[in-house]
Predict the structure.
Amino acid sequence: MSRKDIDPAIKARNGRNIALGLGLVAFVILVFVITVVKLGGNVGPHF
Amino acid sequence: MARSTVLTPEDEATASVRHARWQDYFQLMKPRVMSLVVFTALTGLLAARTPIHPLLGAVAVLCIAIGAGASGALNMWYDADIDAKMRRTRGRPVPAGLVKGEEAATLGVVLSLLSVMLMGMAINWLAAGLLAFTILFYAVVYTMWLKRWTAQNIVIGGLAGALPPAIGWAAATGHAPLNAWLMVLIIFLWTPPHFWALSLYISTDYAKAGVPMLPVVKGAKETRKQVLLYTLALIPVCIAPVFTGLGGWLYLAVSGLGALVFLTLALRVFRSTAGDAADPRPADRDLYEVGETEAKRGKPVGDARHARNLFAFSILYLFALFAALLVEAVLGLKVLELPL
């Protein structure tokens, strides 16, 4: 089945899923980076 | 400015079979309003002139943007019935049938919680509290109560749109001093002449939707008077930052010159018959277009051009004021504390 034959409903849903997935990945990365920044210099002395 | 979406009968026929794309959900967040909120919040954050880690500063602005978007989604959910009756708003995702009201509400609640919690945990709880208050004030006090109840809706409700600079300032410093609230007061007093200038030339839309905007309830003449009175109150507040150590020479020049133009345009509106005639715009016209196109087309304008000019300039003036503060903060230019 070519890309043109895909049901518009499925195409729209795929687009929404990709946007949601990217948003979640971005959020996880953001929380990780914020944690690193907030911990800052406090991490060093423990190693 | 982007053209506002107006559905033709053909569009409406196809809307029922078109499936919601992620862009439709993004539209629920009112990106144009969000960009102004981000700009004023960023100005507040930088005008505080307190060092903040660039990433944390960006996160604070992101939280404010998401919070503004959440308020927009909640507004679009609750106001879908009104939006469907006004040509400016009937192309929005919920009245156009692209997104269900419950989905808009869910998006609004989830993003509200996300933005406030992230702001609290990553930045500080004062900024988070102010953000939560702003979202609640806009979504509940303004949207669900004031907007349908009183002609003072946009005066009191304007507080929600005015708070972002204080949130930005609180995010950078952990407190919100007088100068942060002065920025809030500027936007608060700017809102009535800005919105009432708009409502003078689209009051038929508001009347059709049953929204008690001032021209609908008190008439165009009273609205023109109120526009002038609020402009007279706004001007000294816009110049005040050079007396309180917030603005410098650049800000003084921008606020002073802009105030003269603002006052001139408000006086023209006051002396005009803007709002007395029905809205002369053809259905396909952009809300933000200004000028005398209708007059050239030989259609009655009812001096609507004066209201349009003031509406357009008010946007430019607010942008210029905050841009001046932003430039002074970024370049580290000296602020003034002129004696009163």
